[in-house]
Design goal:
kynureninase activity (chains A, B); 13 strands; Aspartate Aminotransferase, domain 2; pyridoxal phosphate (chains A, B); four-stranded antiparallel beta sheet; Aspartate Aminotransferase, domain 1; hydrolase (chains A, B); Kynureninase (chains A, B); alpha/beta; PyrdxlP-dep_Trfase_small (chains A, B); homodimer; seven-stranded mixed beta sheet; 418 residues
Chain lengths: 418, 418
Amino acid sequence: MSELSITRADCLARDAQDPLAPLRERFDLPPDLIYLDGNSLGARPRAALERAQQVVAREWGRDLITSWNTAGWFDMPKRLGERLGPLIGAAPGEVAVTDTTSLNLFKALAAAVHMQAQAQPARRVIVTERSNFPTDIYMAEGLTEWLERGYRVRLVDSVDELPAAIDADCAVVMLTHVNYRTGYQHDMAMLTRHAHQNGALIVWDLAHSAGAVPVDLNAAEADFAVGCTYKYLNGGPGSPAFIWVPQRHQATFSHPLTGWWSHAQPFAMAHGFAPADGIGRALCGTQPVVSLALVECGLEVFEETSMEAIRAKSLALTDLFIELVETTCADHPLGLVTPRDHARRGSQVSFTHPHGYAVMAALIARGVIGDYREPEIMRFGFTPLYTRYVDVWDAVAILKDILDREDYDVAAERGAVT
Amino acid sequence: MSELSITRADCLARDAQDPLAPLRERFDLPPDLIYLDGNSLGARPRAALERAQQVVAREWGRDLITSWNTAGWFDMPKRLGERLGPLIGAAPGEVAVTDTTSLNLFKALAAAVHMQAQAQPARRVIVTERSNFPTDIYMAEGLTEWLERGYRVRLVDSVDELPAAIDADCAVVMLTHVNYRTGYQHDMAMLTRHAHQNGALIVWDLAHSAGAVPVDLNAAEADFAVGCTYKYLNGGPGSPAFIWVPQRHQATFSHPLTGWWSHAQPFAMAHGFAPADGIGRALCGTQPVVSLALVECGLEVFEETSMEAIRAKSLALTDLFIELVETTCADHPLGLVTPRDHARRGSQVSFTHPHGYAVMAALIARGVIGDYREPEIMRFGFTPLYTRYVDVWDAVAILKDILDREDYDVAAERGAVT
């Protein structure tokens, strides 16, 4: 322990000086829980309970059908998009909150493939990483198999192989900016530039980036992006996802999921589809209003700080976690999976352990909530809006205790740790 | 008025004897409002407020990520499908509540087209009605245009032309069981039989049927169905939709929206898509839990009665409305659009009036909530769970007063009546 550069008292002192510390009060966190799983399901903003009551009791119960206009239900996907946009470097009118990440990815991939079919029809490959979140690959395969015509998905085994895989056959590159298991963060600007120089379009999945790390889609000149609102954006369980289409691509943005919400005149009930101008054409059907409304409560909190301040604390928290684990648990077979390089790190830290599943189950039983991903990976997410330095200290002390005493059940059946 | 077979006192007496009358207490309806728009947005079940609080405060706020298992979030689409199934003649394991009606229609159409591509590849036409809900046609066109290979949508102008349009080119018939504007109800058993006899598969949209009229999909041997939970099922604004896939088609049910929730082992994060058995393969991405959970509050009410009892009252209410309007407003240019034939009528009544938009606006201002659809159509939906006979009487009395006094603004700008 003598090698540590910091004490628990130092952690408390850092919390006392932390400019983000007051934002923890905006969340309703259970006492005695150290919640390091905001990368899976963000904590509940306090405002969400009152907002849910308002939508259910007043907007639905009392005002009924009129709320589509008077409570702004119909415009909510675009209104929330305006509030989310600054977190990812989007310009006004470029983001909608709607449907699921999987479906938005399908729309973006379909649009990118369609654009390439017009411009460079010989390009029929979607390039992605084998380590991408599986549903992204499933959606890409679903699209290419249905298109037939020789479209296919090419899986790349390592980041190093990625540049060469973006070749003359490549129509679209589909990457998740921050990897869900390792926390590795791609160089968005460099890879986007490389894709463009090689004739490809690029679609970014920001599921583990939005609200977690600074993102500037327009500065990178990215083509399309999608992402999730229920992780670092604290929108609530399964809350609708987002899609970003930059202005320069909006006029040609075309996908097959053409429901009435993407029509230029949705209430005209017109015969024949005419796409809306702008981001409206990324919509499809009627949205789940109650879940959608709660997304606003998560976004509001971000407006009281900046992604730069969040990033500074995120790196401080993850640096601290890595140092404490590597120093105090040095005798145990833990392997750091997440990059030490700040530029390549998201807002999570993953360690392998031969009994990772059992150790994580023991941590959860002791009130430290992380999660587990095959193979052997323990994931710890750090949400600067509500995670304290002392939480990091205490989480590592509990981890050390579990490991030192081997206080975990290696025979525990796997499956239930989400 | 002397021709009327009934008085207001008679209506009150019918309400007093109505076996469904106690169910009105299960809903939180604003006082002094006659709500005849449950065909657009169903009223709020009282239980929904407490359920929303439970999901937001306890399941999300307190139990956080563990609720995916402990609160049954992950299985909710199937669990709600089991409760919805009996209302539409589905067997266990055949219904999921998920995504939107538009997206579920896309999945069902894609699966039907795929099945026909294997069995009868020369059939490349989707037959539907020009008067179908526009989004259904948009989605079918979105699918056929993206498939290319000669697929196209054929629009039929009248019910009479429908049988002949189901010809040797027809792969799939796509019909909305009860028309959203007219309230016309198709003969599901007859048209399904006719489609099958002519080599076509048939997809039914039950948006205005589920919870409104008795439906027996398995008795009709229908192929696929989709529908809405926020109209007659009272699931809440924009609540997730449903999809029905009968057991006989589940093994071959294939669509391009293959997200991780439709994977055989969603948490294995496996490489390569392997579809789940059963209705699970109709799922796609993570669902909006708060909105989804409220669907249960609507479905619970149906378990205290039967679709036969609901249908009997629905026909009594719509018969009464038609009689009262036609008798007391006989001097006004109203035209009944909805069939008089019970077998062909849904649970709504539509009348045209040259100033239909202005008259509906006047009704709404007087507390009678119906809605308007071009051209000239005033729609009145009747929800037997909470609509009383005296509501019908009072609504018609107000309509008569507005018409007699011409107390409506014909210059009112159109647009805001949803």
